[in-house]
Amino acid sequence: MRDPILFFTRLLLKCLLPAFALLLAFSARAAAPLALVGDDIDLWPAVTLLDDPGHTLRLPDALARRAEFKPTDAPYANLGLNRHTVWLRVPVDVPADAPARWWFTIDYVALDDVEVFVQRGAETLQRVEMGDHLTVAERPFPGRTHLALLNLPAGESLELFVRVRTTSTMIVPMSLRQPVVVSQRENAFQMWHGIALGIGLCVLAYALTGAIANRESLYVWLAWSSVTGILFFFSYFGLAQQYLWPENRWLVQNGAVLLMLLVLVGGFMFAERALDVGSMHPRIGRAMHVMAALMLLAAVLFATGVIDYHLATDISAWFGAWPMLLSVTVAIRRARSGDRAAAWTIGGWATYTVGAMTAMALSRGHAPATLAMQETYMVCALVQIFAWVMVINVRVAEFREEAAATRREHDRVLLISQTDPLTGLLNRRGLQLGLQPLIDQSAPGRLTAVYLLDLDGFKPVNDLHGHDAGDELLVQMGERLKGVMRANDLVARLGGDEFVVVATQLGGEAEAEVVGHKLLACSDAPFQLTHTECAVGITVGYALAAGDGADAAELLRRADAAMYGGKQAGKRRVRRAHVEVTPA
């Protein structure tokens, strides 16, 4: 199967070839001794190289084989995945007026074993040991990169021999710098990476608070990606070794690879959840979950020593592009359908791909190892994190809209279940839910009255003019009843031509009688229907809480009995339970 990482790396290199051409101009070539003029001297243009595949050469052997040191055609300071030991030679001339103390720097962290020798002919003036096999405290200078103070006598022609052996990419951007330059460059580096750390921590805080508040897994995987991403770049650039685990020899050497595997766990899970891959392609969704589990397993096996550095590095390289490759089809389909989250995901992956391919080109020795090239991956990863934050914002907005739509639908169904479809008034269920709370609020001076109304002469309307005319009359009656009542009162239709009205906050029995007569008067004027004019009457029976009853069923029963008594007494009248009130 074609390695997708290698394929995309080659594609990226073709696209970036014009830019690389300028940088490749700095590739190593044989040169005259470097004059240490200035305060920041790049050593790579004067480097020559001797390969030691058997790891057997010592300094006397290298000195004896000076003539075999050859210039390299590798990109600037990048010898690629070189499993051999490599000797680098740099001849330098120290002017008589030049400083004698210089900081030797290698601006790349992941080098296992580095030895630097200062030679004056056959005489070794200084030997310095550096590399990741040393904890920060054991290094010549306890910093994030490989840094050593060299004494270079003024007015001398000297040679620097550097022996390098590493299990990772052999990147050796070497310089001689004055202390002020070292301080300025390191301060600037720490400041910019401190800003990047601040951005990452802000995203982490956002993700954690979102996960707690919304209980949405997208926030969890954003938090996972933020933590592992921050720690990965901290480890890659040596900040984690300097500040977080300076005494942990294993993490100093292997932390970046371990964290890269954990980054991929978040990559698979976030992409699957953000795009809801499983709903469109269940097999791909399951595959992404399986791959995330495999990355986590690989991280555990690497941490416990079951698999070695090389295999762990290869796994991270093999699977690095798969979160994007597996989800890109779904993302494109969703983006074409107007899914803004998918569009942001594609943008994030596109930016991340540029960074990842640049990093892969560096690791395989195809790109110059300038600081800008090393920083590209981190910058692209930050842009991707911003894109993922936008994905979450879009998804949360969608979730909220779905929840609001669900609530609206629930309210609509609830309204339908509690509303009479003909008149729009409360039905029996709606009345039952609203009546008892109003009864419970009743007190002296704040009475609640339950009125049950039945139309007199309604059946002839249906018989003579049809049910449509009857329905129209019922609608108009409901509107009249609502028109004479207050907003906090209830008006309901129980069915047929029966209505219930609940009046609240009445001052006493006299006011309840007045309300009853207002309801009775609703039938005084004829009803103007579409094709005719009709007149009907009303008989009203009512009961008061709590004098006539304390619960809804009892009050309705008593009001019904009063209304029935009114019918028997001649209709078109208001009647309280056992107490008849004559019409006005």
From TrEMBL:
**Gene3D superfamilies to which the protein is assigned, alphabetical:** 2.60.40.2380, 3.30.70.270
Spell out the CDD domains in the cross-references.
Answer: GGDEF
* InterPro entries (UniProt xref): 7TMR_DISM_rcpt_extracell_dom1, 7TMR_DISM_rcpt_extracell_dom2, DGC-Regulatory_Protein, GGDEF_dom, Nucleotide_cyclase, Rev_trsase/Diguanyl_cyclase
What name does UniProt use for this protein? Uncharacterized protein
List the source organism: Piscinibacter gummiphilus
The transmembrane residues are none
Report the leader peptide range. none
